[in-house]
């Protein structure tokens, strides 16, 4: 996971509430074995014209296909973004498409956790602030929004300024680029020491633990 402190980008407006994870990444794509390539299926049912299965074409009216928003790393949505199932694929799809942040009034709890673990900053702002940014990005697609994670601020080139809250641990992981695995690996020395000490105290372990570890019963 790449460390992130300050993000400067134009933003893609998606003025819809209750965007669920099946809309973010439809269920038929969850069968894939790979963990990569999900960006191609982000917002699939909205992104493409699916009326003729043998001739699927991009939906030119959907924001993700509008050339003026290409390269946007910030998505702006309405309340309750990421509701629905707990699929982590939703966070994968957003990240692999190129989004590094989502701004909305509220997020579903499980999606909020999944996104943070996949390097996406979720910014909760009050509804009128979200509408302001949404309107500016709609009117001027080249408008730049700056998210400063260290200072927990959102600004734009038209004078907007707001502060957002984020849990200290989530902020620490995003600033340092730690997912669950890389965070655990920061404690390799302590884990090695624990395992060495554990080997010396096998006599103190219950038989069920020893049997599970293929150790001889005492």
Automatic annotation (TrEMBL):
InterPro entries on file: 3-IsopropMal_deHydase_ssu (IPR004431), Aconitase/3IPM_dehydase_swvl (IPR015928), AconitaseA/IPMdHydase_ssu_swvl (IPR000573), IPMI_Swivel (IPR033940), LeuD (IPR050075)
Entry EC number(s): 4.2.1.33
Alphabetical keyword list: Amino-acid biosynthesis, Branched-chain amino acid biosynthesis, Leucine biosynthesis, Lyase
CDD domains hit by this protein: IPMI_Swivel
UniProt name for this protein: 3-isopropylmalate dehydratase small subunit
A Gene Ontology term for the protein's cellular component: 3-isopropylmalate dehydratase complex
Gene: leuD
Keyword hit for Transmembrane: no
